Structure formats: structure tokens, C-alpha cells
Q: What sequence folds into this?
């Protein structure tokens, strides 16, 4: 019996390889046909432009075949951006294929990219699992004429044409300082509740906030009393929030640029009916219950990345790369649909980047709407 | 000689000494910041450490039989995340049902740990290390890869953590009920005494007809039960469930027991000790930012203070042992 099963399996395997071989050859033949039809289409389009000039601008991105590579499946943040990436490209007439590595490692991502290079995509846009490990594979892709862009997490400067950055450190810091200024009415004590003391992004924001306050007399009456660290644990963040209130009874605002910290502090402040208010960077779904006007709520408004905007801008940047509108060189400008005009600037790692701009503000009015997304 | 001096009475009892240390800590901290010793501040102290306090009871049982369990916070995350997701997608509601589900998951988790340790004779630290990864990963899996169940998704479940009953927060009542029950259980029930017997001398316990394997299975199941309860408490108190909650928190639970005089080699430790140990730890952690120690140095101080308390405790234990021996020579 066993032998029969094995031989049957072998037969099936042989048959599938045969079919697969036929499949690939037939697809190449169809692609040549497609090229021919494209040529005729272009000729038709040229005629059409005389009638409608507007369609030409959007039509220039049509027919692009783009691959979007994530870090691994199941990252909620990335998927929000990916969804708008796909819808933006499709609205312009292109197609997007999403590809996720089996696990969040550079090795697994190299396999995925390797696969994509052989399938003649026009562009690969990725969130890198490693800064340097992907360089060889991505250079191979660029040599093969594939445009390489990145957002969310960048590979090194040599591995990409351009990186799309969420928001500059200074932009985040400026938004937070302005929020503190606004909530305190321009004067009073405030404190920062951070994650861990080693978190590089946290420290960069804190440093930038301190710099902004030190260099601008507008903020002279704001007194930063302490920077506390809640280690991104609910329990420790609660302890730290309580200690801040007990040590500084006149504390007016706590600014928590970390999602766990802001939620724990919001819960504590709201449960205890504290007059101290809260702002920072948080998840709308987590903050929905605490965001509102008046004394019953602890958080008037807060911020987070605009992941939808990031996905959309990345899509436009990638399509512009494919089109040759930009090459990823410093100083180039392009128009990203409704988002407006963007300039390519220098990134911290020596490569180039496009900065989306300000973080998104979540107010009592829009927090419920976004809570379903994030 | 007849009348024991106060000093001797204190050194004679570990619990009295721990109580003294706790009172001393209270006085010192209040000296630095008078807002520490207010009823609301003390209630917040217990509420914010309720999870550690409740789970210290389970760790007491585990350590009494000479074991250790480092999978507890993964069990907590799994059970907490499970009810978080069930509440989020409206499969369950209310307060009681989530508690029961969390505790049931905890019992199953603890039972499996107990089976591996008692039946396959795997050393507890190795077995629970394995389960630590398994349960934590399962917590991530059921959360759809890192989703949170937030305050608004939990509905009315987390209300119990903000309501008061007879002037005390409900969370504190849960802690009190647990401690009263375990005080009775460990001291006055046959099973409770068997746990002590297995811990002080497994061979002797076996010979005297105690099923050592079942007792080991039981203590890890109890630990699982309390971890499940801890999961429900954690989600309720902080009104949010995330798969990485309390990561590393098992060390706090172990530290609370060790401070409370529970021996790592088994057989020695009391419920009062666990209570005082977890209160001392909670006070230290809460006090450090209050007395003006910078954020970066807080963990250093926490570690030093834990060691100081433990060393003082051991020295006094030796003195009392020596005194007891002297008594025998007479």
C-alpha cells in the first residue's frame, strides 16, 4: 500500500512540475502581447490628451507594477499604511502586490526580494528588517532597473533611492511643546513621562523639546520639573505619575511621548479626577476613553504618526521614482497628489528622505473614528 | 532569663522584624514627603501592587516545596489577553464571567506546568522557562500579533477597579480575601500542612504517606490559578490588555517572597511573610521617586534595598537560630 501511495505522489509531483513549466512559458508569451497592446494604448492616449489634459497627469502613473514588502505579517501599524499605499496606487491605475517574509528577519526578507526581482516589478517599496543586511540584494534590484523606496524602517543609504520618513524629530517635539504651551495657557509646571532612559527615539524627542524651550522666549514661563521613566510598563508608569503629582502639587501637564505611558497616566489622572492634564503620543483606540474636553477627561488631545498619510506619500514617491520624475537625489521636488509638493532632503544616515510633516492630532472629535483604525 | 526582652522577641520572629522594617520605611518616606502616608496614597499603593501581592501567595506555595516558577507573568499575559480579546469582540461582558475565564485559563496553564514538573521530573526553573516562552507567545498569537484591548473595548469590565465597597477599593478587597483565605489554608488545613511537610523534607513526607507528586502538581496549579486572577486584575486595574504586560514582573514576585523570608530551598515561609515582603517591596518602589532619587538610579537603589533587607533578615534569623540552640543546651 505504502509504495502505491508514494508512487502516486511522485506522479502528481511530476505532473505539477510539467504544468508549472508550461505555465511560466505561457505567461512570458502573454507579457509580450501585453507590451504590444501597451504600445497601441499609448498611441491612443496621445490622441486623447488633446481632448482631456487633466487625465494625462494621473494617467502618467498608470500600469505600474509595484511590490510592497513588509517586515512580517501582522503588524497593525504597517498594515494601515499598506492599505492606503495600495489604494493610492490603484487609484492611479497601477497594481500593488503585498509580500511579507515568513518571519521578521533580514534573511527571510532577502528571499522575498530575490523572488520579486525575477518577476519584473517596476518598483519595490519596503520596510527593512535590517539596516545593512539587505544592501547586496537591493543593489541587485536597482541594477536590474527596479526602483527601490522605503518607509517605516529604512535600509542604509546605498540600498535605497529614497526613504519616506514619518515626521522629523523637531516636528514631533514642536507639536508636543505647543500642546503643553496651549494646555497650560502659556505658563506653569509640566513633566515628561518617558519609556526607558535608553530609548533613542524618546531621548531624541526630549532633547529636541528641551532645545525648543531653551531657544524661544515664548516658552520662558514653562517649567519642566522632571523627566520620569515608566519603562513602558503600566505599573511603573502609574507609580511615576503618582509620584509626579505628589512631588509637584501644582503640576499642570504631563507629556508622555510613549503609548504605554500615556495610557497608564491617562487612567490614573482620570480615575483620581486630577486637575493635571495629559498630552503626548498615543494610540487612539487606547486613548479613546480618556480623550475629551472638560474635567471628566484627562487628555484634551494627543498625537501619533499619520500612518495613512505615510502610506499615501510613499506610494506617490515610489510611482514618481518609476516614472523618472525623481531619482532620489537631494533637492528634487515632486507633487504627491492631494498631499501637495514635497522636496527630497538629506536623511540622518547620509541618504535622502522625504519627510511627511507633522504628526496627526487626535481630538475628542476625531478620536473615535481613528480608534477603529489604530 | 524568664522574661524575654523586646529585642529578643523581635529577633525571635521574622515577621515582627519585617513589620519593624516596614514601619521604619513608612516613617522615613513620610519624613521626605508627607503625602505618602495618606489613606488614598496607601490604597493606591496596594492597588498598584495588587497583582504582585496576590501572585506572591502562589509563589510562596511553589517556593515552599523548593520550586520556582518564572512562567507566571506569561500565564498572566495569556489569560489577561484572552479576556481582553473576548471583551473587545463582544463575546463576553460584565465582570464575573471574564474573571472566571481568566482563572480557568490560569488553572489549565498551571496544571500543565505542574504535570511536566511533577510527572516528568523536569527541574522547575527549566520547565517554567519553557512555558514562559510558550504562554507569552500564545498571548501574542491570540492578540492577532500585538493588538491591544483598550479601555473603551473592555466596556464595563474595568469598572470594578474604580468602585469602592465599604470604603475600600474592590481590588483591595480581592487582595484581602486572598490573604485571609491563604492564611487559613496554609495554617489550618491538612493540604496546607502537607505543602510545608514536602518542602522541609520530601523523603520523610513521602514515607509518611504524602503523595509528593500530587502536592507539587497542586502548588503549580495554585500558582496558575493566581496568575489567571492576576491577569484579570491587571487588565481591570490598568484598563488595558496587551500581550507584553508584566514582562519581567516574575522577578518582583520572587523578590517579594524572598524579602518576606521565604526560603529558596523550601520548607520555610509564611503568608504573613509574603504579605510583609510584598508590601516592603511595593513601598520601596513607590518611595524611590518620592524621596527625590533620579529616575536612572532608581533600579540600583531598588536592588540595593532588596539585598539589605534580605541580609538583615538572614543575620537576625541566624541569631534567633543560635538562641534556640542555646535554649536546647540548657
A:
Amino acid at each position: 500500500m505504502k509504495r502505491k501511495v508514494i508512487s502516486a505522489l511522485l506522479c502528481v509531483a511530476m505532473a505539477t512540475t510539467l504544468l508549472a513549466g508550461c505555465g511560466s512559458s505561457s505567461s512570458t508569451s502573454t507579457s509580450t502581447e501585453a507590451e504590444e497592446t501597451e504600445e497601441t494604448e499609448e498611441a491612443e492616449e496621445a490622441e486623447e490628451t488633446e481632448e482631456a489634459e487633466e487625465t494625462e497627469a494621473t494617467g502618467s502613473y498608470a500600469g505600474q507594477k509595484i511590490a510592497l514588502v513588509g517586515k512580517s505579517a501582522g503588524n497593525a501599524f504597517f498594515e494601515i499604511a499598506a492599505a492606503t499605499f495600495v489604494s493610492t496606487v490603484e487609484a492611479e491605475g497601477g497594481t500593488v502586490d503585498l509580500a511579507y517574509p515568513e518571519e521578521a528577519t533580514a534573511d527571510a526578507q532577502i528571499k522575498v526580494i530575490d523572488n520579486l526581482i525575477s518577476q519584473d516589478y517596476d518598483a519595490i517599496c519596503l520596510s527593512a528588517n535590517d539596516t545593512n543586511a539587505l544592501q547586496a540584494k537591493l543593489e541587485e534590484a536597482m541594477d536590474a532597473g527596479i526602483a527601490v523606496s522605503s518607509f517605516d524602517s529604512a535600509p542604509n543609504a546605498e540600498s535605497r533611492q529614497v526613504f519616506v520618513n514619518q515626521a522629523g524629530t523637531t516636528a514631533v517635539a514642536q507639536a508636543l511643546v505647543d500642546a503643553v504651551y496651549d494646555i497650560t495657557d502659556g505658563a506653569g509646571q509640566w513633566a515628561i513621562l518617558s519609556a526607558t532612559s535608553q530609548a533613542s527615539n524618546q531621548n531624541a524627542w526630549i532633547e529636541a523639546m528641551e532645545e525648543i524651550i531653551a531657544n524661544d522666549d515664548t516658552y520662558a514661563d514653562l517649567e519642566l520639573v522632571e523627566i520620569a521613566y515608566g519603562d513602558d510598563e503600566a505599573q511603573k508608569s502609574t507609580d511615576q505619575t503618582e509620584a509626579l503629582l505628589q512631588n509637584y502639587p501644582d503640576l499642570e501637564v504631563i507629556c508622555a511621548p510613549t503609548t504605554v505611558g500615556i495610557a497608564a497616566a491617562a487612567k490614573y489622572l482620570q480615575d483620581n479626577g486630577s486637575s493635571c492634564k495629559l498630552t503626548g503620543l498615543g494610540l487612539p483606540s487606547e486613548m479613546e476613553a480618556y480623550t475629551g474636553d472638560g474635567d471628566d477627561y484627562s487628555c484634551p488631545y494627543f498625537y501619533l504618526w499619520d500612518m495613512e498619510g505615510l502610506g499615501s506619500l510613499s506610494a506617490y514617491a515610489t510611482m514618481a521614482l518609476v516614472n523618472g520624475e525623481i531619482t532620489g537625489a537631494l533637492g528634487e521636488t515632486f507633487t504627491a497628489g492631494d498631499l501637495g509638493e514635497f522636496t527630497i532632503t538629506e536623511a540622518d544616515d547620509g541618504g535622502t528622505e522625504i519627510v511627511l510633516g507633522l504628526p496627526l492630532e487626535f481630538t475628542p472629535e476625531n478620536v473615535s473614528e481613528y480608534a477603529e483604525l489604530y | 532569663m524568664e522574661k524575654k526582652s523586646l529585642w529578643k522577641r523581635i529577633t525571635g520572629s521574622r515577621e515582627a522584624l519585617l513589620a519593624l522594617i516596614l514601619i521604619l520605611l513608612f516613617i522615613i518616606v513620610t519624613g521626605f514627603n508627607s503625602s505618602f502616608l495618606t489613606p488614598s496614597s496607601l490604597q493606591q499603593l496596594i492597588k498598584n501592587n495588587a497583582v504582585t501581592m496576590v501572585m506572591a501567595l502562589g509563589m510562596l506555595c511553589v517556593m515552599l516545596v523548593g520550586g520556582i516558577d518564572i512562567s507566571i507573568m506569561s500565564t498572566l499575559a495569556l489569560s489577561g489577553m484572552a479576556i481582553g480579546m473576548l471583551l473587545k469582540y463582544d463575546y463576553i461582558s460584565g465582570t464575573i464571567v471574564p474573571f472566571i475565564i481568566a482563572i480557568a485559563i490560569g488553572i489549565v496553564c498551571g496544571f500543565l506546568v505542574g504535570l511536566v514538573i511533577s510527572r516528568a521530573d523536569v527541574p522547575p526553573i527549566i520547565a517554567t522557562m519553557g512555558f514562559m516562552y510558550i504562554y507569552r507567545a500564545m498571548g501574542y498569537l491570540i492578540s492577532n500579533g500585538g493588538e491591544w484591548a483598550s479601555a473603551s473595548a473592555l466596556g464595563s469590565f474595568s469598572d470594578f477597579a474604580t468602585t469602592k465597597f465599604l470604603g475600600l477599593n474592590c481590588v483591595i478587597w480581592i487582595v484581602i480575601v486572598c490573604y485571609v483565605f491563604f492564611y487559613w489554608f496554609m495554617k489550618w488545613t491538612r493540604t496546607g500542612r502537607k505543602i510545608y511537610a514536602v518542602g522541609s523534607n520530601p523523603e520523610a513526607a513521602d514515607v509518611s504517606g504524602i503523595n509528593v507528586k500530587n502536592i507539587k502538581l497542586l502548588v503549580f496549579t495554585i500558582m496558575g490559578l493566581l496568575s489567571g486572577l492576576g491577569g484579570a486584575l491587571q487588565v481591570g486595574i490598568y484598563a488595558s490588555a496587551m500581550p507584553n504586560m508584566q514582562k519581567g514582573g516574575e522577578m518582583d514576585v520572587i523578590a517579594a517572597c524572598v524579602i518576606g523570608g521565604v526560603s529558596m530551598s523550601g520548607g520555610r515561609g509564611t503568608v504573613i511573610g509574603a504579605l510583609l515582603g510584598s508590601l516592603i517591596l511595593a513601598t520601596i518602589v513607590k518611595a524611590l521617586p518620592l524621596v527625590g532619587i533620579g529616575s536612572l538610579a532608581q533600579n540600583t537603589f531598588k536592588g540595593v534595598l532588596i539585598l539589605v533587607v534580605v541580609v538583615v533578615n538572614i543575620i537576625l534569623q541566624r541569631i534567633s537560630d543560635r538562641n534556640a540552640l542555646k535554649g536546647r543546651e540548657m
Notes: Chain A has two domains: 59-166+306-356, 169-304. The two ends of chain A are 54 Å apart (CA to CA). Residues 2-51 of chain A form the longest helix (50 residues). The CA atoms of residues 230 and 240 of chain A lie 6 Å apart.
